[in-house]
Inverse folding.
């Protein structure tokens, strides 16, 4: 991680254990890492819409929690990058673990009776989530990947495009996250030579938010489509404003 530059802002000296490659308080006196902050909108607004649509369609509460969990990650990350305070860092990191536990539950319980609740799985995930480390988060993501590949290989192969698109976008974000960490000094030097409107493109941690937010959102749609298909509903993908994918469930079940 890059050391903080000397510029001070509204939130004072950073107290978080992590700092990223974006220069602090360059765009706004009130936002420590401007681009790393506003890029979280993709993890806030679309999932809120998804939760509302899921509620309107009368679908299971677990999927409303999935969308709201992703939105909580976005809000926590917004607060962290805006302030660089340790308390907000926890608000960023903890929802990542909890929301991924919800994703795992939904995907591993997708072939059960409607409105069924597996208390053992819930308890296991709650206990697991107490051990909050990056390794634990990576293990949860690995469980999602393996389960997804199994389903599109052996159960619903026609969902491969959505599955692999979600996975590919997420991995692209992870690649940019690593580039931002490893080559931070070079990226900062490059930004000094570029016009501001061009230099913002090199804010790879912000791109990490965008791609992982989109990949996670598509994963929820993937999981929801599996579940609704198993329950013999008729899921239909629609594009909000002709751009953003949403999943709508027709109320009448397939015969």
């Amino acid at each position: 991680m890059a050391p903080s530059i000397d510029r001070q802002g509204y939130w004072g000296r950073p107290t978080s254990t992590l700092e990223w490659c974006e220069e602090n308080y360059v765009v706004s006196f009130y936002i420590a890492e401007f681009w790393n902050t506003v890029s979280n909108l993709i993890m806030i607004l679309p999932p809120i819409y998804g939760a509302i649509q899921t509620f309107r369609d009368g679908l299971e509460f677990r999927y409303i929690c999935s969308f709201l969990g992703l939105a909580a990650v976005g809000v926590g990350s917004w607060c962290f990058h805006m302030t660089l305070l340790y308390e907000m860092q926890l608000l960023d990191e903890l929802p990542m673990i909890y929301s991924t536990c919800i994703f795992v539950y939904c995907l591993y319980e997708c072939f059960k009776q409607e409105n069924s609740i597996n208390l053992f799985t819930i308890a296991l995930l709650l206990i697991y989530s107490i051990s909050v480390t990056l390794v634990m988060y990576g293990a949860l993501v690995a469980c999602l990947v393996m389960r997804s590949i199994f389903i599109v290989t052996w159960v619903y192969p026609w969902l491969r495009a959505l599955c692999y698109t979600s996975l590919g976008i997420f991995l692209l974000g992870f690649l940019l996250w690593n580039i931002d960490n490893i080559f931070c000094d070079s990226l900062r030097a490059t930004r000094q030579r570029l016009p501001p409107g061009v230099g913002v493109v090199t804010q790879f941690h912000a791109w990490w938010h965008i791609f992982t937010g989109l990949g996670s959102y598509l994963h929820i749609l993937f999981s929801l489509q599996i579940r609704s298909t198993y329950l013999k509903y008729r899921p239909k993908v629609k594009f909000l404003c002709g751009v953003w994918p949403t999943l709508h469930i027709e109320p009448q079940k397939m015969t």
Summary: The longest helix spans residues 204-230. The longest strand covers residues 234-240.
